[in-house]
Specification:
heterodimer, A: alpha/beta, TIM Barrel, 7-stranded parallel beta sheet, 3-stranded mixed beta sheet, 12 strands, B: alpha/beta, 12 helices, methyltransferase activity (chain B)
């Protein structure tokens, strides 16, 4: 059953918000790393260089501060550090969870590889994964900080399973660990957590496993904490309306890339969680004009009313040139503010949001 | 007495040094992948990779040596993606895996290419020249049914003509191969996207066209689970295979045993015994037990040979585990002696 998104949404509304309506603006998480950070990552591996681990930590801190502020400058209501400390979405967590080991890179396609880890024994929780990262970011941010976490289904199915009779059982154990991490993040002050499950898009028939895993993740988490789920690049009709039964506050989708052809999927039956709608494409290197993004936002109003609509890019922006990522984010916020003002002025018919006023 | 043969259908993971060297030399994008006319440093790197693959297999003690197919950027679609009558389209999913290949769009007559024959010549020379060990060469090709299923036809016009053209193309390539003891024809699509009812014979005809073009023993290797029973019966009777390769790791192996009990078998059989998609390395004793279990289920069948193989290609694995799997297969034949 869906959580209670209206119980936690208001805390993200800035005190000086200019409009009565409020479309919560956010990002999925990843953001292009500054070039110098990539160089720093390489330099620390070079035995001839004096650049060491503590220098790298400083570089990561600097990059997190920079991107958090860049998100604030773009006007976002909730910000992320751009995942500057993370290398890859499975590897980063597998390095922190006992039970995983790495054997080396495997092919994805052509000469693109992924250090696919193996689960060699029961997974267990050791040190917190993200609490330090969150504490740092929240300390430098003036806006609330969202924490993206790779979900247990993806952490399980994008690894080799050597230890569990079925990968489903591995996923449930991982979900219990994610629950432990979310509890620690909440203790540290986090109020917005997003579970990323890209693996569900390739095997939508497994939605019940993801639902069960989410039940475990949110166990004991108060309703003032907002729990989002992000699933990208898939055929949503294969997991809808099942996601209405997931214990989440918000479902984050990538639809700009497909020109909103899948919107009707979500119209019947009624969409229960809040909708976080991708309104800029994460894989085109052109900045969408504000007017175009406003039209995209109106697509979301076909599914949910403004008080249940969150505005976000399609996916993480990390593969874009940085100035393009910034331009998209800035225009996205501007478009959201303009649509809010138009709703306030009664210029948008919420029953027929695509119609001209 | 059944001969036990440790072998693999190839398509190995590049050694880590080669992953790095070749991605530096070639690049990461779609347009940077092999077109078959590489030279210079790229060709030299692949020569080194091939030599490593040959030594890996002889060192492990396999009974057949494959070229290893390090150049096959697009896995079993490779013979088409490097063909001059083929344009490569978008990146598409490779079966039900988190792997992708370039969609080969066939736009003209599929004439002789010679790409695979050339790499097999090089492998045969390496086997002759090395003192690591000795074993005969095995060739690898995609089966015509799967290759047609993975490709897009923009030239031949209907499915039947396309499948036949692919079969003729593969048969033509095969005729140029150096001497080889065994031919592996990889046919995963027979399990994942089986021919429609009534179209089975067209598929088995296509396979027979290729199988008949060599004097070697032909193994038609299937993957990702059990074959549909009717299709299985067609393959046994019509594909001219010396051995059908059956996946005993993925899916329900009881279904496979049922097929063999009910419809008989080819003279020899290939068993997918080690998991090509999991880093857990099977003990040789476990592999041997699986062979005995299978043979015990079909006591009436007296196989000429049982091939001990992985259930899929091995490129899914990191390089240390790929080598360990080769050793497990070779050691299992010793357990069975």
């Amino acid at each position: 059953m869906v959580r209670n998104p209206s119980a936690n949404r208001a805390q993200f509304r800035p005190h000086d918000h200019p409009n009565d309506s409020f479309l919560l603006t956010t990002v999925v998480g990843s953001y292009p790393k500054p070039k110098w950070l990539n160089r720093a990552d390489e330099l620390v591996e070079d035995p001839d260089s004096k650049f060491d681990e503590s220098d790298l930590t400083e570089a990561h801190d600097d990059a997190c501060r920079l991107i958090t502020h860049e998100h604030e400058r773009a006007g976002l209501d909730t910000v992320v550090d751009g995942e500057m400390r993370r290398n890859e979405m499975v590897e980063f967590f597998a390095e922190r969870i006992d039970g995983y080991e790495f054997n080396g890179p495997v092919k994805v396609w052509g000469h693109n590889y992924f250090d696919k880890p193996s689960v060699v024994e029961e997974v267990s929780y050791d040190e917190p994964w993200l609490v330090e990262e969150f504490a740092f970011t929240t300390n430098v941010a003036e806006r609330p900080v969202k924490v993206p976490i790779t979900g247990p289904y993806t952490l399980g199915f994008w690894a080799f399973n050597e230890a569990y009779p079925s990968t489903e059982e591995l996923v449930y154990d991982l979900a219990d660990l994610v629950n432990e991490e979310v509890e620690k993040l909440v203790e540290a002050g986090a109020r917005y957590v997003q579970i990323d499950e890209p693996a569900l898009a390739t095997t939508p028939e497994d939605h019940a496993i993801v639902g069960e895993a989410l039940d475990r993740i949110v166990s004991g988490i108060d309703e003032d904490v907002r729990i989002g789920l992000h699933v990208c690049y898939g055929d949503y009709s294969r997991i809808y309306p099942e996601i209405n039964d997931f214990p989440i506050d918000e479902f984050d989708v990538e639809l700009c890339n497909g020109d909103y052809e899948q919107i009707p999927t979500f119209q019947e039956p009624a969409f229960e969680p809040d909708l976080a709608l991708g309104v800029v494409d994460a894989h085109t290197a052109e900045i969408e004009p504000v007017e175009e993004i406003k039209a995209n936002i109106r697509q979301g109003l076909r599914v949910v009313p403004p008080e249940k609509l969150t505005i976000s890019p399609d996916c993480g922006l990390k593969l874009l040139p940085r100035e393009i990522a910034y331009g998209k984010t800035e225009n996205m916020v501007e478009a959201a503010r303009q649509v809010e003002a138009e709703i306030d002025a009664g210029e948008i018919d919420l029953d027929a949001p695509l119609a001209d006023d | 007495m059944t001969e036990r043969v440790a072998a693999t259908p190839g398509i190995y993971p590049l050694p880590d040094w080669a992953k790095e060297t070749l991605s530096d030399l070639k690049g990461h994008q779609k347009g940077d992948l092999l077109s078959g006319d590489e030279g210079g440093e790229i060709a030299e790197a692949y020569d080194e990779v091939r030599a490593e693959f040959v030594d890996d297999q002889l060192g492990a003690g396999l009974d057949r040596v494959v070229e290893g197919q390090g150049r096959w950027d697009d896995m079993i679609a490779h013979p088409l993606t490097v063909h001059e009558s083929v344009e490569t389209g978008g990146i598409v999913r490779y079966y039900d895996n988190n792997n992708f290949y370039r969609d080969p769009r066939v736009v003209d007559d599929l004439g002789f290419s010679g790409d695979v024959a050339a790499e097999l010549e090089a492998a045969a020379d390496l086997i002759d020249g090395t003192d690591v060990g000795d074993a005969p060469l095995a060739a690898t090709l995609p089966g015509p049914y799967s290759l047609a299923a993975l490709a897009t036809d923009e030239h031949y016009g209907d499915e039947s003509a396309f499948q036949a053209a692919i079969a003729d193309f593969l048969a033509g390539e095969l005729e140029a191969f150096p001497a080889h003891e065994t031919l592996f024809l990889l046919e995963p699509s027979l399990v994942t996207d089986p021919p429609a009812e009534g179209a089975e014979e067209r598929a088995t005809d296509a396979i027979a066209t290729v199988a008949d073009a060599t004097d070697a023993d032909v193994v038609v290797q299937t993957s990702y689970g059990a074959l549909d029973e009717k299709l299985y019966a067609h393959l046994v009777d019509e594909a001219d295979a010396d051995a059908l390769g059956l996946d005993l790791v993925a899916g329900d192996r009881e279904d496979t045993v049922y097929n063999v009990q009910e419809y008989g078998a080819t003279d020899s059989v290939a068993l997918g015994l080690v998991d090509g998609q999991n880093t857990l390395v099977e003990e040789p004793e476990t592999v041997a037990e699986r062979v005995e279990w299978f043979e015990g289920q079909v006591p009436a069948a007296d196989f000429e040979a049982t091939y001990l193989t992985p259930n899929t290609e091995l490129f899914y694995l990191p390089e240390n585990k790929y080598r360990a799997k080769l050793s497990a297969l070779a050691a299992a034949t010793e357990v069975l002696e």
